[in-house]
Write a structure and sequence with these properties.
With 113 residues, the chain is an all-alpha fold. Helix content is 64%, strand content 0%. It has 6 helices and no strands.
Length: 113
């Protein structure tokens, strides 16, 4: 599609407002934001609907690979055993979670306009 091809669509005011807010947050024009999000949605649908066409031999090999035991990887084992610094942001203990929410609320409340 040439860059000067047009796509026209109708949207309710509420839909436009819904689109404009994240577009502004990302410093994108409405058009750029809509096109980017539409392309991402198309990719997701396409990837979710991916079909693998195997003949009988390929299917058997594929199933064998899925059923094969996982090889030990010492580097991955070490990585998985490490405590991540950022993990408390996503799974904080209850007291930390409360403090985190209070701090976030204060940040939102006190953010410059």
């Amino acid at each position: 599609m040439k860059s000067d091809d047009q796509l026209n669509l109708r949207a309710k005011e509420s839909q436009r407002a819904l689109i404009d807010t994240p577009a502004e947050i990302l410093h994108k024009s409405r058009t750029d934001f809509i096109l980017e999000m539409a392309c991402q949605a198309v990719e997701n649908v396409t990837l979710d609907r991916r079909v693998f066409n195997f003949n009988d031999q390929q299917y058997a090999e594929f199933i064998d690979m899925l059923d094969a035991p996982v090889a030990d990887e010492p580097a991955i084992e070490r990585l998985l055993k490490r405590k991540l610094v950022i993990s408390w942001l996503f799974f904080p203990p209850s007291k930390q979670r409360l403090a985190f929410r209070i701090n976030m609320a204060n940040c939102v409340r006190n953010k410059p306009s």
